[in-house]
Amino acid sequence: MKVMSMTRSRRLLLFQTVLLLATISATLLAFGVRPASFAVETARSADRFVDSICVGTHWSYPDTPYGQRYEEVKQKLIASGIRNVRDGFYQSRPQDLGKSGIRTTIVADVPDRSNGDEKTIQAIVNQIKTANAAGARIDAVEGSNEPDLFWIPSRFDKQYKGQGFPKGVIAFQKDLYTAIKRDSKTASLKVIGPSLGMTYDPGGGNPNPLPKGSLANAVDWGNFHPYPGGNPFSFPFDYNTTAKYYWNSNFPSINIDEFPYNFDTYSPPFQPKPMATTETGYSTFKQWVSEKVHAKYMPRLFLEFFRKNVQRTCSYEFVDEFADPQKTKREANFGLLRHDLTPKPAYNAVKNLIALLRDPGANFTPSGLAYSLDVRPVQNYREPLSKRVANYDRTQYVHHVLLQKRDRTFYLVLWHEVSNNDTSVQPPREIQPPALPVTLKLGQPIRTVAIYALGEDGRLTTTPTRLTSNQLTLNVPDRVVIVKLVPA
Fold first, then answer.
1. Considering the entire predicted model, what is its pTM?
2. Which of 56, 346, 436, 458 is the S-S candidate for 316 at Cβ 3.0 to 4.6 Å?
3. Mean pLDDT in the chain?
4. Which bin fits 301, alpha (ψ -120 to 50), beta or left (φ > 0)?
5. C-alpha span between 149 and 206 (Å, rounded)
6. Are 56 and 316 in contact (CB under 8 A)?
7. In the chain, what's the furthest Cα-to-Cα distance?
8. Going by C-beta distance under 8 Å and a sequence separation of 6 or more, which residues neighbour residue 482?
9. How many Å apart are CA 29 and CA 32, to the nearest integer?
10. 446 pairs with which residues across the strands?
């Protein structure tokens, strides 16, 4: 009887312990606390990502489609879902676009061969107020465009209060910020800093001419133009079939992520303010990227910059300015649309990405998702970084952004962030990297799952699927894949 009593006591104790642990687990889950094996990542607003997308336009160029076929270009812009353009004042273009919901980032500068003063800035402020009162949706004002190129005496000889670059640019930006913020009708506008157009050395050999912190109190967002064309300030290692991988590639995060040359060089004048990118992108002429690679890169570019907390990313530009059948001219081929206004695959890709993720409405606070990603490198995508860094983990090249809509649906956006071009040869040699197997493990109940994938033609395909033991295995290619997760 004594032994039986002890056995029953142990069973009762075991039952009570299991019950207690289950109760604690359920309580923790109810309050959003997850098992230690699953990190909880707070999502970002899906619509905030859509809001970050911008394109450059040139409404004042009369010999291009911007001037010759304005109405058709406008309709293509509206159809794309892109909400922001970057341009100057021209006729009533900002007002007309604003009535269709398109916002304008205005580039403010002193006129060519001019010695501007406070009247110059007040004229800009008055022009913004007049345009917005007439229907424009100007929500941001950008300082001087690449003044290290355009303020020099041998070209346009711009000055402000008798000073050239860089002192005149700094003074102009400070006065612009003050004038915008002290007027109640423009105070809510974002003021973006001046950009630079030349390459400077983050190591100090040829430093940024704008001193560190010099514009921190004169901007809401800093500014840089990080076109993805190589990174000579990285380590010269080979990766798969590309020698000096970062030097000889042009993938979207080449100079803002692992070797963030552009942040290191161009953000110090504005720190601690976040950055905007008012020019970046690709030309589809023969010496840069094909239209097929362009379609892979553009969604990745917008996502990479958003991932790195860039507030607005303006692709240069919306339309190819000139006809160039042989694709020999760099400046003629930057558009998402061809010169005849037919869409490049990249236009379709960006349009479909926006259509899937747009979620207009009131601001909300996204919640967290408990999950993990297990990436298994294949082929040469797991070789060491260099002889100095043994067993370097290549799995970092699967990048992701976790987004959420107001209905609490999560969108986990994944892509294999590798280069599709070896630029050590001309024209660049296209690379076809393999997809990487990735296992998504979830630490919370999910009701439904679907997989969306952008094809090389920019089309979006949808595949309903199911979780197995709250896991999902998929192959992540060099194109964007989106896992839609509806919580239970």
1. 0.90
2. 56
3. 89
4. alpha
5. 15
6. yes
7. 106
8. 356, 411, 412, 413, 414, 451, 452, 453
9. 5
10. 487
